[in-house]
Amino acid sequence: MLDVQLRYNFRVYPTLGQQIELARAFGCARVVFNDGLRLRQTARQAGEEYVSDAVLSRKLITEAKLTPERAWLREVSSVVLQQALADLNTAYRNFFASISGERKGRRVAPPRFRSRKDNRQAIRFTKNSRFKVLGNGRLRLPKIGDLAVRWSRTLPCDPSSVAVIKDAAGRYFASFVVQMTDEALPPLASEVGIDLGLTHFAVLSDGTKVAAPKFLRRAARKLKRLQQALSRKQRGSQNRKKAAVKVARANARVADTRRDWQHKLSTTIIRENQAVYVEDLCIVGLGRTRLAKSVHDAGWASFTGMLEYKAARYGRVFARVDRFFPSTRMCSACGRVNERMALNVRAWNCPCGSHHDRDVNAAQNVLAAGQADNSNDRGAHVRPGLVPAARREAVTHPNAACSTRSVEGISVL
After folding, report:
1. Which residues are catalytic, by number?
2. Is the model's pTM score more than 0.85?
3. Of 390, 341, 387, 384, which is closest to residue 362 (Cα–Cα)?
């Protein structure tokens, strides 16, 4: 039994009056967030101590409602304003954890002011606001009303919070957070390694090749036409706003189609394999090359993220292989590591007599490396950790290049 926290998104259709109330709530939450950020920045520049969360809540919500300048904050739910400050506090905690080294990964930038011209607005309601899903299927939100929801599936349990989101295409969504318990899938004997690429989106170690859909490339002609029409509109005009919405809708269709396809593929892979291993690609670096458009169109990061959380949800094993592991250049039969291999080389022969498809060979090497790093049933590592080599062994002999490189290629994981 696995306790997981999931998010269920549904399309909502507010009336014109409800859209006005939602716009008012978006604006109030944005103002409170910006006021809190400005107050902390001013205190820091003046050399004063860090403004606590309680002080922010008292000054910017409780006391601000009594002033003529912020009296309109009383027109929206106080929970929305409290959650805006909670988002600010989370942004600061992530920033402090990043600069101190507690948060791994890329450096997190300090919080920035929110703009009313941002193409995405969101507010959040918790249980304290007493939002409710009515028997007729509508979502009742305080000081907004009963929203019509298109239920594509039923909620597994009572949600702990709901966020109302307006995207760049002008669509409204209700995002529910639920805490539920999942049962692990029956164990299987099959394991798979995945090599991600551009020629084929994914190549599995069993030889299966999944073609790259290239959703953005297929919609490029329509996007080009819409973006050209947008560039001809006068800035600040209503026609320009309408053209911007059309561009956003076209991009949203591409993103939604890609997300749906990746969900179906990742679910199939997780259900059919007990363990899934992928290569830890430097997608940020690849996004700066001449292949950037194709890399972003592929969406490797979102796909591997789906594999990771679905494996944790259904009791499967998911692991990433070191990005410096020579999966492409290593022979999966003998372990020999070749020199640099050009991208146009799709198949090659090893001196040991093996003929390799470039991508299938890489997927098989990813599978072997992932299995070597995986732990046994008792939690102990399958192989011992790295130890310093003796002085007489700390050299590479010319005649032993094949064996030493094969061992070295796996030991770096």
Report:
1. 195, 279, 359
2. no
3. 341
